[in-house]
Amino acid sequence: MEHGFIKAAAITPKVKVADPKHNGQAICRELRKAYEEGAKLIVFPELCVTGYTCGDLFLQEALLEEAKSQLLEIAAATSGQDALVAVGLPVERDGRLYNVAAVLQDGAVLGMVPKMNIPFYAEFYEGRHFSEGNREVSTYCLEGEEIPFGVNLLFECLNVKGLTVGCELCEDLWVANPPSTDHAMMGATVIANLSASNETVSKHEYRELLVKSVSARLLCGYVYACAGEGESSQDVVFAGHNLIGENGTILAEAERFTGQTLYGDLDLARIRAERRRMGAFGKEKDLSYVAVPFRLKIEETKLGRTFDPLPFVPGEEEQKKKRCEEILSIQSYGLKKRYEHTGSKTAVIGLSGGLDSTLALLVAVRAFDLLHLDRKGVLAVTMPGFGTTGRTYDNARRLAQIMGVTLKEVDIQEAVRLHFRDIQQDEDCHDVTYENAQARERTQVLMDLANQKGGLVIGTGDMSELALGWATYNGDHMSMYGVNAGVPKTLVRHLVQYYADTCGSRELEEVLCDVLDTPVSPELLPAVDGKLSQKTEDLVGPYELHDFFLYYMLRCSFPPAKVYRVAKRAFAGRFGAEEILRWLNVFYRRFFRHQFKRSCLPDGPKVGSVALSPRGDLRMPSDASAALWLEEVENLKS
């Protein structure tokens, strides 16, 4: 459970209809396998002790008694084992029959949760046999022991932070107001669904959508175990479509018709972090719930879960295309609104021939097309300095020409040298003053041209640079609208590639691809033999790592040790543990040190779930201490 991870299992045993003894033995065999895999929450299907398709045999006392006997055998099989187990069976109570989830742990039956919503339509006939479950918790007498019995029953782990389990059964998920809503509002972080959902064409897609949407809406883990092989195929077929979801994402999905046992690593810490962010969860005074306590051993979860090394970039190609088109639209429509408001018809962009300024130009042209403004109103300014190379200079000029915008060249070297003389800066001293003087001179040129033309300076800096403070204060840090402020560097690259792939111009595609192949550089130090002498990622670290750190720190609230752990898993074979740790240290130092630059950012559109605007997502003091985070990073070294 270290770092909040807990392994869950959804298991579909091969049952025999109306044979509780066979099914009890099958369940126990599957339990032993799940224990070996380290599963701490194990969920079986609805009515799996008897089989779901018993029909009127559910009314037979012999079947009910044997089911109860097998429940005790299964409970005994949990003795000395470190897991919470949920199994389904029919239970008679006070002359009525209930479809129940029995929750077991360490040899005991902790409680029983009856199904609340009983289907009685189409192929479902449960209302013939089962009664609607009682919400208010009462008791059921099992072998002389009073067991909590009711829908409003939660199972709370006393020593695993954030592990509180609620149960619902099959149809409960499909109704307008599922019990899981109240469970979550009363503190449940994981919902176990014991189900017997049969297969019809495309039904599995809707089932998956339900698990996604409920886990997203309730910010919870969702373990869905479905009936499968062995159930009667007299009129319907069951496929064992097991699912494990978390916060709107399917972590694991069983291949249907295979009887596959499904494992998934739920992240309780992330669930709690999301709920803190939302602030919409907490115990409701008008809901009467009973929490049954239990304990688990604290040990490290062996992770099977994967972590995308590019969390800002969709992995599936079609989804990536849709995402790129959507982001370009957000950027361009945001800029369009700013021009509609100001009435300006000129955009001033410092075009370096690098990735960020290229994206800003593409967005500006889109906005002007939307406004039916002449593209000549986009003024692309190339400003050669001491480190400008022929490659980026040529690409900037070619881009402006192909896009049909106005190109202006302003060589800043003479102006910067004059400034050096004014402040007595040695031109041979290539320090931060040497670099920043060029960046600020360029910003002055852009601002004054915007005043001259009655236009707006369009910022080019991206979110990754803002996170690291890799921007000259009141230099490239400043603009009148920062179209890239919500776009991380790893995504900038894909947006430019998408534009190259879809622009329909071979000439434009070629120059965009060359921009993509050019190493990222501010070009503030003199070139050597016409080649770059300054590469950003050599200085601040790989943007892939920094974007990964940024996502899991801000979006998921992971502490440094957890970021480090998942980064090692995500980048295995690409970056070594020492290298990851080195750049993680750099990330936290720079992120905290440079908040003052983000505290006065220009306006710019938010495009994703992570943003750094001081007016929106990140309201962080400029002088906050990084000591707590850096201390944890230092401890990782040992």
Features:
alpha/beta; Nitrilase/N-carbamoyl-D-aminoacid amidohydrolase; 20 helices; seven-stranded mixed sheet; six-stranded mixed sheet; 17% strand; elongated; 638 residues
Question: Can you offer a commentary on this structure?
Answer:
This protein is an alpha/beta fold. The protein folds into two domains: 2-279, Carbon-nitrogen hydrolase (Nitrilase/N-carbamoyl-D-aminoacid amidohydrolase, 4-Layer Sandwich), CATH 3.60.110; 317-637, HUPs (Rossmann fold, 3-Layer(aba) Sandwich). Helices cover 40% and strands 17% of the residues. The chain has 20 helices and 20 strands. The protein has helices spanning 20-36, 61-77, 171-174, 179-185, 203-218, 268-278, 317-342, 355-370, 390-403, 413-423, 432-453, 463-468, 489-502, 506-517, 536-540, 543-555, 560-570, 577-593, 595-598, 627-637, and strands spanning 5-10, 41-43, 84-93, 96-105, 108-114, 138-142, 145-149, 153-157, 164-169, 190-195, 221-226, 243-246, 249-253, 262-267, 290-294, 347-350, 378-382, 406-409, 456-459, 481-482. The strands form four sheets. A seven-stranded mixed β-sheet has the order 13-12-11-10-9-8-15. Strands 5-4-3-2-1-14 form a six-stranded mixed β-sheet. Strands 18-17-16-19-20 form a five-stranded parallel β-sheet, with helices on both faces. The longest helix has 26 residues, at 317-342. The protein is elongated, with a radius of gyration of 30 Å.
